[in-house]
Amino acid sequence: xxxxxxxxxEAAIAMANELRESCFMGFESFVSKCPLPMLEPHLDxxxxxxxxxxxxxPNYSYGMDEEEEDNDFDDYDYDEDEDDDELEDDDDDDDDDDDxxxxxxxxxxxxxxxxxxxxxxxxxxxxxxQYTYN
Length: 134
Prior knowledge:
Radius of gyration: 21 Å
Number of strands: 0
Shape: elongated
Protein name: Importin N-terminal domain-containing protein
Helix content: 55-70%
Region (Disordered): 60-99
InterPro entries: ARM-like, ARM-type_fold, CAND1/CAND2
Distance between the termini: 50 Å
Largest sheet: none
Strand content: under 5%
Keywords: Repeat, Ubl conjugation pathway
Low-confidence stretches: none
Organism: Grammatophora oceanica
Structural class: mainly alpha
């Protein structure tokens, strides 16, 4: 039952990541193709979302201290004669199947589109500069 729930969770996460990536791709197109007057009211929200997801990594434990990280294996009595396959089979390291990098890439492309759009307007560029450094 746990493995079925895990698979459903992984599928839900994959679908959410695909949706996020698609949204950012839409934002990039919107920012690149729309005239500035139509674009300006939406730039702040697009930029906030893109900046938030630019560093999105569900595999990184943001709350774990380095000391805790270093001590993870202190309690484990490792026997060098143990078969390495036993240790590897437990998790299969889900990082191989992780597509969150696509979300980060799409978010960064959206930011690049915002910067490019801002370069077409001095007032928009000034607003972007103030947003970044305030």
